[in-house]
Amino acid sequence: MSAPSAPGGGYAPYAPYPPSDNTAGGYAPPYPPAGPQDGGMGYPPGPGHSPYPPGPPMEAYGAYYYFQPAPYPSGPPAPGMVMPQPQQYAPAQPYGGYPAPVMVQPGMPGQPPPQAAPAGAPQAGGWMSIPQGIPNCPPGLEYLTSIDQLLVHQKVELLEAFTGFETANKYTVKNTLGQKVYWAVEDTDCCTRNCCGPARPFDMKVLDYYQNEVLHFNRPLRCSSCCFPCCLQTLEVSAPPGNVIGTVEQNWSIFTPQFSIKDQSGNTVLRIEGPFCTFSICGDVEFKVVATNGNQVGKISKQWSGFAREAFTDSDHFGINFPMDLDVRVKATLLGCLFLIDYMFFEKSGNKEQDRPGMF
Fold first, then answer.
1. Greater confidence, 183 or 18?
2. What is the DSSP letter of 65?
3. If we measure between CA atoms, which residue out of 237, 228, 126 comes closest to residue 175?
4. Nearest-10 Cα torsion for 17, 18, 23, 25
5. Exposure of 90 by Cβ count < 10 A (0-12 exposed, 13-18 middle, 19+ buried)?
6. Model's pTM, two decimal places?
7. pLDDT at position 36 over 60
8. Which residues, in sequence order, are bridge partners of residue 320?
9. Contacts of 236 (CB under 8 A, 6+ apart)
């Protein structure tokens, strides 16, 4: 089938060359197929262009052929052009002749490399460094392996002190050297705090230096009076969050606070015995930590923090002692018991004391 022709003769605009006589119906260009040009210099130029001039033979380029664009005539390079010279490699060095590598990175040039802080040394911001190489220990509880005493300081909330509006409690947990070990913060909503007061349920997150939640305390909404023996206080301890390692359960008692410290299997490992009166008047209030055989092995103390702090705020100071070789899971459960005791006996509602003799 031939291409349509334009009016008045000629060919259609989209067929710029005449159709060929090929039976397959293709189009053929008006010039012969491309072929090598005489002299081996490639294909012929297009219409309107002069042929390429023949270049010098390959031998004319000498040793610089691979370092300059072709075609360059033979001879020295043009002025201003820097050409690599042969045999410019460094001479062979004898074995061991190279200088020793620099071993002060990272850091300032010429300074010795930074050394790791020894165990127990403070980190930035006054934090205790984490002990290393502790087997069979939940992550984040390694601090407790080298500690037999903790100090817990509650942060003063000015809004709560002046208005009585209950805010979330925040605590700093330190060792005896004053180094920070943990940071604890209450996780509750505004309505729960101001409606339920000290009896409110809460989740408390305990964070380490790296802001990782290493402990989680959960207190459900329950009673604390001896008039309701079937609905007494409990607190669940998890490390890491979601893995229960112990519980604190209030025991029924009329005159003194009594608690059981239980492991993850529900076995009682320690007991807490409180005083008949929990009023803090110019002195400490102590809760004994007693083993199952009746011997005292530690204590939880609500420390006197000064008249102004005691009278106008519920920001309390606590201390806790336990044996050094006590399991870290039990130590963490004792720390949870300290927070439960704070809420039950020393947390104020509207800056009003709630302490009362016995468990009524």
1. 183
2. G
3. 126
4. 50
5. exposed
6. 0.64
7. no
8. 150, 300
9. 217, 218, 219, 244, 247
- Inter-residue contact 218 to 203 (CB < 8 Å): yes
The SS3 of residue 197 is: helix
Residue 208 reports pLDDT greater than 60:
yes
Would you state the structure tokens that stand for residue 50, as one six-digit string?
């002069």
> pLDDT tens-digit profile of 3-22?
454 454 554 454 455 555 55
CB 270 within 8 A of CB 292: yes
Q: Where are the beta strands (DSSP E) in the chain?
A: 149-154, 170-174, 180-187, 202-207, 213-219, 234-238, 244-250, 258-263, 268-273, 285-291, 296-303, 317-321
| All residues at 6 or more sequence positions from 176 whose CB lies less than 8 Å from its CB, including other chains | 149, 151
Tens digits of per-residue pLDDT, 316-334? 789 999 999 999 999 999 9
The CATH label, of 3.30.1370, 3.20.90, 3.90.350, 3.30.70, for the domain at 142-347 is 3.20.90
Express the helix, strand and coil content of the chain in percent, nearest 5 each.
15, 20, 60
Instruction: State which amino acid sits at residue 293.
Output: N
Distance CA 70, CA 61 (A): 9
CA pair distance 331, 179, nearest whole angstrom: 18
C-beta separation of 235 from 246 below 8 A: no
Among 76-85, 102-111, 165-174, 341-350, the range scoring the smallest mean pLDDT is 102-111
Pairwise CA distance, residues 21 & 141, whole Å:
92
Q: Which two tokens stand for residue 117?
A: 């802080």
φ and ψ at 60, to 5 degrees?
-70, -20
Residues with Cβ within 8 Å of residue 306, at least 6 apart in sequence: none
Query: pLDDT per residue over 58-106, tens digit each?
Result: 565 555 444 444 454 556 666 666 565 555 444 554 444 444 444 433 3
> How open is the CA angle 8-13-14, to the nearest 5 degrees?
140
